[in-house]
Amino acid sequence: MRTRVHFIAPYESMIPIIQECIPRFPQLTIQTDVGDLANGVELATQAEKNGAEIIISRGGTAQLIKKAVTIPVIDVQLSGYDMIRSLTLASQFNGQTAIVGFSNITSGAQSIIDLMDLPLKVYTIHSSEDVARLLLELKASGYRQIVGDVITVNTAKTYGLEGLLIQSGQESILRAMEDAQLVYRYLSKNHAISIILNDLVTREHPNLLILNERNEVVFENLTDFEKNPLTDNYIYLTNTSLDFHQSQIQNVFMVDDYQLTVNAYETTLDNKNYKVYMLEKGQPYAFVQFGITTFTDASMEPIVAESPAMQAVLQNIQALYENHEPIYLRGEADSGKSFLVKHIHQMYSGGGLLLQMDLSQVPPGHLHKIPLAKVRNVEINHMETRMEDPELLAFIQSCLQNQIGVFILGEQIMNPQWSLDLELNTIMMPNLADRPEDLAPLMQHFLTDYYHKYGTTAVRIKEDALQLIQDQITHMNVNQLKQLIKQAALNEQDYVITTATLSRLLDQQPSSSPMKLDGTLKEIEKEVIQFVLQEENNNQSKAAERLGINRATLWRKLKD
To answer: Looking at the keywords, is Transferase present (predicted)?
Structure first.
C-alpha cells in the first residue's frame, strides 16, 4: 500500500513544479492543495481526517500545521538557488525594494545581496505580528516593492505595495519528498482498516458532518463546500427538529447564493450520542445565472499610474466617488476600465460586494429582485441594450439613494438625455498610447505576475525589446499587451526577454492588408470602409464613428 502524502502549497505556482516531481516517487500517493497560514491549517486538518499520513508545506504555514495535526509535517526549505533567482528579479524593479522575513530568509538574502551587489535592503522580523507595522513604516519611507514569504507579500499588496514572493524551486521540493519517503520508513502504525472505512463512508456520503453532544465536529468530509456552511443558528434549528421528531429530519436553508439541504439523524456509540448531518448544495440564486456576478476579494492589487493621464483619471474618479456621484467610464474595449473599477472598490469600499452586471444577459423585470444589502459598488456593462428601460433608471437611482457607487462602462458617447437624468459624469479612459510613462512598469508587472503564476524563467525585458513594443503600442490595448508579454514569458528560455523572441511573436500578429486604390470612386469608397472595419475588428459602431457616418449609412454602403 502506497503512503498518502498531502502537499499544501502556500501559493498557486508551486503546484506545477510539484506535479513534475510526483512521478519520481511511485511509492507515494501525493495530493496537492493551495492554502496559506490559517487556510493551510484547515486543509491540513481535513487531509488528516481523510487519511493523509504525511503533510508537506512551507515556512509559516508548515509551522502552524505542526501544531494542528497529529501526523508528521515536513517543511520545504529554501535553497540558495531559490534566493538568487527571486532577488535577481526583485532588483529589476524600478523603485525602492526591501526584503522582509524571518532570519531563515533574511540571513541568506543578505549574503547574496552582498555577494551580487544588489540594490536591496533587508529587514528581519521575529513574529508575524511585526509584518503589518514594518510594512507601513517602509511604505512611509518610500519603499514600493516588498520581497518575502506569502504572508509578507499578501500584506504588502493589501497596503498597495508590489509584492514579490520568494518561490521554492524543484530541488527544494524534491528534497522534501525524499524526506517524506524517509519519515514513512519509521512509521509503524497501520492505517489500512481506517482508510478503507473512511473511503466507504465518504463514497456513500460525499458531504458529511458528525457532531458530538457539545455540537463539536468530530468528523467532516465536505466535497462540495470550501468550508462548513452550517451556522450556530442552523445547527440549533436542526437539533431542535431532531429532538421533537426523534427520527431523521430534513431542513432547507439559504446560504450566500445557494440552497442548502440538511438531512440529519441521531445515533449512539459507546454510550455517547452523536448527530449525523448529510449536506446537499443546491443551485445558485437565479440572478447569478444572468450576467450578474459578485466580487468579494479584499486584497489590494496595485494599479500602474505613473503617467499624468492615469493620475488625473484616478484623482477625478476619487473625487466623484467620495461625493456619491455616478460615473460613466468611457474607453476602448480592453483598455482596463473594469480593472480600474475593481481597484476603486478595493481602495475605498471598506468591504462589501462589487456587483458586475452585463445588461445584455439580464432579463427584463429582474433588476428589482437583486438584493443590495451587502453591495458597495455596481459596475454596469452594455448599457446601450437597456437605454429605454425605466427599470434600469429606477435601479440606478435606488443604488445612489443607498450610497452605492455606480460605474457605467462603455465605448460610445452616452445619450445626453440619460446623462441629464442621472447627472452622469463622463471620465475618459486613456489608451496605452496616451500613457507612455506606464508602459515599462505595466509590462514588468505582467512579467512578475506570470513568474508567480506559471514559474516562467524571464525576469526582465531588454531595452531594445522594450523599444520594439513602444513602436507598436498605438495598435495595442492593455489586454493585447498583456497577452504579448504572456507569450513572450512562456517562450523565452533566458532570464531576459529579447528582441528576437518579441519579433517572432509580433510577426505572428495579423497585419492589415494594404488598400487597393484602383477602380471607380464607389469601389474605392467601399475598399476604405472595409479597411477601417478590419482595423476596428469588425466593430461597425467604431468604424462608423471614425468615418464620420452613422451605422445605417455604413451598412447601406457595404450592401450597395
So the answer is: no
User: What string of H, E and C letters represents the secondary structure of 171-228?
Assistant: HHHHHHHHHHHHHHHCCCCCCHHHHHHHHHHHHHCCEEEEECCCCCEEEEEECCCCCC
Closest CA to 460 of 430, 438, 492: 492
Q: Are 89 and 444 in contact (CB under 8 A)?
A: no
**What would the mean pLDDT of 138-149 be, rounded to a whole number?**
94
Task: Provide the Cα torsion 327, 328, 329, 331; round to 10°.
Answer: -170
CA 196 to chain centre: 37
Phi-psi region of 424 (alpha: psi -120 to 50; beta: other; left: phi over 0): beta
Instruction: Give the cell for residue 475.
Output: 495598435
Q: Which pLDDT belongs to residue 559?
A: 65
Cell numbers representing residue 150 in the block: 506569502
Residue with C-alpha cell 505556482?
13
pLDDT in tens, 511-536: 444 555 566 767 777 778 877 777 77
Q: What is the largest CA-CA distance in the chain?
A: 98
3-state secondary structure of 75: strand
In the chain, % of residues over pLDDT 90? 34
What order of strands is seen across the sheet that includes strand 73-76? 28-34, 3-9, 54-58, 73-76
- The more confidently predicted of residues 297 and 56 is 56
Q: What would the DSSP string read from start to end of 235-246?
A: HHHHHHHHHHH-
- Paired strand residues for 217: 211
Residue 313, Cβ neighbours under 10 Å: how many?
Answer: 20
User: Cα(130)–Cα(70) distance, rounded to whole angstroms?
Assistant: 29
Rounded CA Rg of the chain: 28
Q: In the sheet where 272-284 sits, what is the strand order?
A: 217-222, 207-211, 272-284, 258-269, 249-255
Is residue 284 pLDDT above 60, yes or no?
Answer: no
Helix, strand, or coil here: 143? strand
- What is the rounded distance in angstroms from the CA atom of residue 230 to the CA atom of residue 222? 12
pLDDT for residue 126: 83
By DSSP bridging, strand 249-255 and strand 143-148 are unpaired
Strand partners, 249: 264
Neighbours of 371 (CB within 10 A): 11
Range in 378-392, 429-443, 507-521, 540-554 the model is least confident about: 507-521
Q: Is 458 helix (H, G, I), strand (E, B) or coil?
A: coil
Strand 258-269 to strand 272-284: parallel, antiparallel, or no bridges (unpaired)? Answer: antiparallel
- Please state, in angstroms and rounded to a whole number, the distance separating the CA atoms of residues 209 and 198: 13
Q: What DSSP string describes 389-454?
A: -HHHHHHHHHHHHTT-EEEEEESSPPPHHHHHHHT-EEEEPPPGGG-HHHHHHHHHHHHHHHHHHH
d(CA 454, CA 446): 12
Beta-sheet pairing, 28-34 with 3-9: parallel
- pLDDT tens for 370-382 read 777 768 899 999 8
Kindly state the average pLDDT of the residues 458-472: 87
